[in-house]
Amino acid sequence: MSDNHHESFRLHSPEFNQLNKRLDRRNFLTKTSLGLGALALGSLIGNRVLGKVAGSVTHEPVTATLEEEILRAIPHFAPKAKRVVYLFMSGGPSQFETFDYKPKLAGMFGQPLPDSVRQGQRLTAMSANQSVFPMVPSAYQFSQHGESQTWISELLPHTAQVVDDLCIIKSIHSEAINHDPAITFFQTGNQLPGRPSIGSWVSYGLGSDNKNLPTFIVLVSKNAVKDQPLYSRLWGNGFLPSEHQGVQFRAGKDPVLFLDNPEGYDGKDRKEMLEYLSKLNTMQNEPYGDPEVQARISQYEMAYRMQTSVPEVMDTSDEPDEVFELYGPDSRDPGTYAANCILARKLLEKDVKFVQLYHQGWDHHGGLPAGMKKQCKDTDQATAALIKDLKRRGLLEDTLVIWGGEFGRTVYSQGKLQTNDYGRDHHPRCFTMWMAGAGVKPGISYGETDDFSYNIVKNPVHVHDFQATLMHLMGVDHERLTFRFQGRRYRLTDVQGNVVRDILS
Amino acid sequence: MLLNITTFMGHLHPLIVHLPIGFLLLAILFELVSYLNRFKELKVAVPFTLFLGFVTATLASVFGYLLSLSGDYDPAILSYHKIAGIALAFVSGLLFLFTTRPFKKIVAANRRLFSATFVILFFLVNYTGHLGGTLTHGSDYLSLDLISGKASQKFLKVEEALLFEDVVLPLLNKRCAQCHREGKMKGELSVQTFAGLMKGGKSGLSVVGGNLETSELYKRIILDLSNEKHMPADGKTPLTAGETSIIKWWIEKGMATKGIKIGELKGADEIKTSAAQFLGLGESSLTTVGISNSESKINPEIPSVINLGLIDSLRNQGLNVRIMLHNPVMLDITLPPGSGSKINLIKGNLKRVAKNVIWLNLSNNGLSDTDLDFLPLMTNLEKLRLEKNPVTDQIIKELLGLNHLEALNLNETRITGVCIEKLKQMPNLKRVYSWKIK
Questions:
Q1: With 50 as the cut, is the pLDDT of residue A105 above it?
Q2: A213 Cβ partners below 8 Å, 6+ apart?
Q3: Confidence class of residue A18 from pLDDT cuts 50, 70 and 90?
Q4: Domains in chain B, number
């Protein structure tokens, strides 16, 4: 059998005939025009130079220039943030028991939600059939903290200590009413799966500051109630080249799956092997021109470097006791939220650009008072410790910290309201998030909700606005970072999003 | 598609009109000078030149009509211009007709009368051209005031200038009146007079005293550049931050008008530098950059160019070089931990890019005070990380000249409280990190 490696790979089904014909024509024209050019130029300049020129022209992918031009224009503004740590509270934490203080509700226990407030808004199937919507105030007390005198719930005593570093946004609103679309919306700008996650866009647009670690790293708490699922597509790269996907680091002896050498192999000739593999892949890539082959090559190389860099960064044994005390008792147990917060700080110190933590268990349709108490206990101290730790190390200068869930919760109780117990359904029309650090005004609250925390009365911030602001702080104009896929250009904020300039410092 | 072609051809009108002007003036000149013996041969060239004038005048009339469809012109002047233009094409055509064979005898008999009609043609060309110029550029575009204008500037200090008459109105005239003026009135707005401003335009009131949110004019000039409602439209130069601040202040303060001097207005200090710059009253060209919104607070001393080869060689030497902005070129440079031993090798290149370095991270590299003697060159530095290096209080010498420094990280170094105290005299230094110092 003769080898056909020099021939371009073609699909020969009828659907591809048209395309093949066009490719033939292009090939012909390229070859002849270059050939004629070569004849003419051959007498003028040396063949060696010419060969180089012709080669570079023929192998250039057709779309390269557009994408390259987009990337070359970045950064569009001087960035304020160099890294991001996004603490994602999955499940939808209630704003009533945390940040959105509603004193007037105190006297309205059990009263039905006025229609004038609800305005016929759709509810989830879980509470839409309820005959009454009894309003319920927070079971927990609020008090004022910090120089900014911000009202914070007693469930968050540690967060209350750092409140002067936070920019609390009380008027975030989303469009999705259920977990999967709402998280997907927050992470990718679209409710349907398939688009790149924010971290992937950041990685694609800004590149890496540390060649030995992935640009986008994900940590999932092991000590959370897994009431709603998380899926790896939330940190997926979508249509962007796959080296930009988030890489999950796990607790235990295998932080990154399939990274260790298999048993009985000492890894000494690993580098040599990868070089050969890279050659093979490059050879294969020439006829296909598939960017995913390039991605695979770079991922193998990254994995090789990670074999030494990951164990080093995962090792917290040289952290002093004082650090573990700061982050709380859980922090000595790898894989907990608190331990992940320490890990996040270590990754940020190494200039990893986008670190995302997930902590599940905030979906309190029933038993909310006890549930919130547990969730806050598991996260409050470590969250505040992360802020304090970054601040004293001078890293809050250029690190943006984000805390928030995918939606908020309703003012009315889902299910039967009891004197000491209640639940709250999903509420996307307003909820609270906070940002801190690089480029964000510290010690302010932005946006206001009505007395029922049901509608926004001042300065609404849409999910796309939040995304646009995040990108802005990283130096990227969210309207100009696009990627062409299936015939159109996509961006994180789709066709919306305004930078919230009022919260920028 | 059709619309685009008509608009395009319409836009060609100002170009085409110069052809009939040239041809017809030439025809007139030929006709008149052919009375002189020396030039009598030119007589034969008249019909041909006249014909060219007629054809191009007709073409210009058609294109002009297409342009008039776009609206936005003063209807009275426009209709005169239209009639005059068509008449011009008609008259030149008629004159050409008289030079053709059937009429030649009549003309030969009345040669002087025929020449006299050329004089009429001359006035018609001028009249039409003048109206066209008024439509495009405004009636005061070519006025004697321009020549005498410089002499009329009667103030030397910005305080003596009248806020509305000397600053706001000329500013609007300069930046907006090309479209928004009597005669053109895009969006039915004219900014040329106080009355015109008060009247507003199609989208509502242009300025409302003390109320920025309902002042359409202000709203439009501060929109994002990408917004199609942004003014000035179609990629014309946007107003500078200083100019915007003048207009903002003028509207906010209830639009002081009728001869109030800037010096008599309370709190006018914030616009004085911008106004002075607009009026060309020297003194403050450097200080004006800092004012305006937070977006444009970019230090003007940062060079806008850099030798890209230097960035490459820094990267080859193992430094992380991140471009923070392309214009001016702002760099964020990191020396990876544990590579302090090569500091003497990279110093040379660091010095060469010194003015472009805005953020610098040298942490955890075992660097001493003497290793850092290049710091004073980095006068535009805003954030400096020196943590985890054995630097001592001596480092202060290298730092005191860094006037733009905002944040300084001296965690885990050998400095003392004395040094921290001294650092307080630095003008812009806002945050000093001194955790775990000895």
A1: yes
A2: A306, A309, A310, A313, A347, A350, A352
A3: low
A4: 3
Same domain for B16 and B77, yes or no, is yes
A320 touches chain B (CB under 8 A): no
Interface test with A, best of B322, B389, B410, B432 (most A CBs within 10 A): B322
Domain containing A49 equals 17-60
- State the count of interchain CB pairs (< 8 A) between A and B: 46
Grade residue A203 by pLDDT with cuts at 50, 70 and 90. very high
ipTM value of the model?
Answer: 0.83
Task: Determine, for residues B409 and A79 on separate chains, whether the beta-carbon distance falls below 8 Å.
Answer: no
Write out the residue range of the structural domain in which residue B104 sits: 2-137
Residues A34 and A100 in one domain: no
Q: How far is B411 from chain A (nearest CA, A)?
A: 7
Of the pLDDT bands very low, low, confident and very high (cuts 50, 70, 90), residue B286 is very low
Decide: residue A147, CB within 10 A, 0-12 exposed, 13-18 middle, 19+ buried: exposed
User: What does the H/E/C string look like for B201-236?
Assistant: ECCECCCCCCCHHHCHHHHHHCCCCCCCCCCCCCCC
Whether A415 is covered by a domain: the verdict is yes
> Min CA distance, B187 vs chain A (Å)?
27
Give how far B215 is from chain A: nearest CA, Å. 20
Our count of domains for chain A comes to 2
Q: Which amino acid is at A369?
A: P
Residues of A within 8 A of B409 (CB-CB) are 394, 397
C-alpha A124/C-alpha A412 separation (Å) is 13
Residue B161 falls inside a structural domain:
yes
Cβ–Cβ under 8 Å, residues B403 and B424: no
C-alpha distance from A72 to closest chain B C-alpha (Å): 10
Residue-wise pLDDT for A438-453, tens only, equals 999 999 999 999 999 9
Mean pLDDT, all residues of chain A: 88
What integer is the mean pLDDT of B75-98?
90
pLDDT score of B394: 93
Same domain, B167 and B291: yes
B229 lies in the same domain as B355: no
Same-domain status, B95 and B52: yes
Asked whether residue B290 falls in the same domain as residue B317, the answer is no
Nearest to A504 among B294, B326, B435 (CB): B294
**B40 & B80 share domain:** yes
